[in-house]
Write a structure and sequence with these properties.
22-stranded antiparallel beta barrel
Amino acid sequence: MGTSKGIRNSVGIQIICAGLASLSGVIACSANAQEATPAVAASAASAASAATTASAPVAASAPQDAVKGDAVSLKPVVVTGSRIPRSQKEGPTSVTVITSKDLETKGYRNVYDALAQQTQNTGFTQGADYGNTNTPAANAINLRGLGANHTLVLVDGRRVADYPVAYDGSVNFVNMANIPSEMIDRIEILNGAASAVYGSDAIAGVVNIIMKKHIDGVEVNVKGGTTQDGGGTNGRVQITGGKDFGALSTVFGIEVSRTNPIWSAQRDFMSSATLEGETPMSIWSRQNLDTGQYLGGPASCGALSGIHAFGGSVSTVNGKSGAYCGSGKAQPDFWTTQTGNTSENVYGGFEYRLNDKTTLFGTASGAWDQTSNNTRGPRWTSAAASTGYFFNQTTGADEVWSKRFAPEEIGGASVWDKHWNDASGNLALGVRGAIGDSSWNYEAAYSASGYQSRETIPILKSSIDTYYLGPQLGTTAGGVPIYAPNANRFATPLTPSQFGSLFSESASQDNSWTQTFSLSANGNLFKLPAGMVKAAGVLEYGTQGFSNTTDPLIYQGAYYNPNDTGTFSGNRKRYAAAVEFNIPLIYQLDATVAGRYDDYFYGGHSAGKLTYQLGLEYRPINTFLARGNYGTSFRAPDMNYLFQGKQKGYYPSTTDYYLCNQSGQPLNNCEFANVSPGANSVQSGNSNLQPENGTSWGYGFVFSPTADVDFSADYYNIRIDNLVTVINSDNLLRTEAKCREGQLNINSPDCQDALARVVRNPLTAVLNPGAINEILVNPINAAMERTSGFDLTGKWRFRTRGYGNFLWTASFTKVLSHKFQQYANGPVQDLLHSLQDPTNTPEWPDKLTVSVTWSFAKWISTLQVERYGKVPNAEQTGYLTPTALANLSIAHEFSKDTSVTLVVNNLMNTIKHDDSGGWPYYTVGYYMPYGRTFWLEFDHRFN
């Protein structure tokens, strides 16, 4: 496809150009007679801005004629968003570049952190540190708030396997958590749709992670850190290197890292769920369902206090329905707010020049990740797998017994950790070169990628019913199981050895893979009066598949009340052909035209689409570029949406708005709010889903009066029709409550749909009358989703005499609108301004990032501040104020090969509190509760 060829030269060219520009003030960088403007040169140089802040080393090697301002010839390179090599980074659609230097100096923990903090990433995501999520061992980004599955992620311009477990149990995505940062040359983000170039998925944007291709020598990087408030201690060792052996060029990288978890109990503000006056969570209760009274007493709570259960926080909770044992630490003691992780990554690559026109190339990488987290301790409820209650032959009443086990009973909270052992690998092989003596170049390549995730979770054995209730003595006429349990046994705390005999571990395995064959070419077609018409073309064939295999013991009755996550798999193949043209219409005006046809085949279905893209670049003067783009988009439905079997599970937590309203309790203290674990769910796939279609357009400009100053502004507008989505459970419950209470027309399509999906117990039920029994969800083709906004970026480099050099950069994204419509004739919902967001995951309406880098002698320091706009509180009754977070790095070079860097994340120790929705009292998923974090990094280069 030509991508890797351009990558070889890009960074060096950009650094040289930027260095020369920093001396001459205004300099033109070009690849042919049609010179690139200073605006373009300066913006291309921004990819190396951190490296050129202290420009003396670069300037020292600059030719004297270049210093005087003569044009420097730039070899064209391939920039993300086009398959035609070009001399300018800036094209009809803006591209954001994150350099390897940025990863070191701006306080980013890893690749995911760098991408998540970009201003275009306005959407909410459940990441590895989110807590109770389907994918705690993986991280996803959400450009433009359109979802994790609408951003195409590439490595060296090639597709990689999805994470084998669907994000939020629904959509497929690429994991950003296991890419070794030391081997990354740069990351390019195309800030717009590009289906006509890359095919399906490229709707919200494209992220292209470009790995290093040439390294001379060996570099060792050691990094370690911790948090100010405890937990999260981490360390990392990276070794990278490379060497040329005549016609053979090689590179390699090794990374080993470890991060300890952060437990909620280690943060004072969420160490107990009673800090804000919440009622202690029930940890031991007996309830007579015939009278509705709890039968607990001081003796049972006293026994738990005797073993210092939940840190000695157990107390008797008295109420109008009797007494039970409760504790405010039932959740914090078992909840990790940052996962624990150990990872090993290896990478290798080569290029072998057969002759002046032909090069063989290949790359291979492997990653092994071990992740652990904890989101709640073990909990037992009598006869949960059947009726949820039993007939007590001793008392002659229907009863329900419930118990949460304390860390002191099981041998420590970490005994109940969940574990993920993941392995992934990528391989790419190919040949590239020139076609004869023509201007045309070609590339033929094969790439393959695979991912395996093995999940191991602790689970109670089915024998626990017998342990507490004794043998079943039959059933009542109504089918309720009969027991004559020993109440003293239930009131006696367990020892760790006793608990060890009552639980086991359940293992499941998930796999995904993809492979692609591609043939591409690019070159000159013919010359027009304004310049040469250039073209590129590509043919692709690919296959893709996944499988989710659950523990077979689940179906053999080995476990207590297990979740049937289902065993299912699927695969598909695709064909694609694309062409692209760059046409100089007049001397100052260039047009880009691209077209592509994709065809997917799966399960007897076919989904094909022709997409196209148009772009204009206008340079009326040397310092100004105006641009615009329009394109159509296409996305084949996620394989998880298509092939998922009937999957039973439960939500991490749910709020029953109807019962809260009926009881008259305020939401922040309602017994039916934020219930964890939440309601049962039933989700299945839909093989009849239609592909998504959409349009994207935008316009903007780049202005660069000097090589030290540039500014850009771009407007974007993205629309998706036939959107594939699973209806959010929280929105269903909000809608259902309004329908039942008459706030919405009960005969409307939205009400009829919500009432059918939220299945409640009969009002005559013995246990939990009128409560949610299960929520039925499945993927559908919604009518549409659309969003619009603008991006602003700026850079200013200035120098002082005796005080060093400074580089100021700023990025700002403002979302102007974000709308969603479920049915073609239904209401259009405002996802941006409404507190009652139907997704329950509103995006940031604006994000601002400002950084200042100062370099002086052998010192370099960067201060970066990120400001996040207001988002609704957890209760969705008001807005939280905007929040700013700051990162600081200070580096010292002891020699040209040795440096030490101190990094402080969250410099002001800011933690965004939100008490409106109850524990954990912070904005989960938007801001992290870690507080101030320190890292010390040592780097040495062996030449």
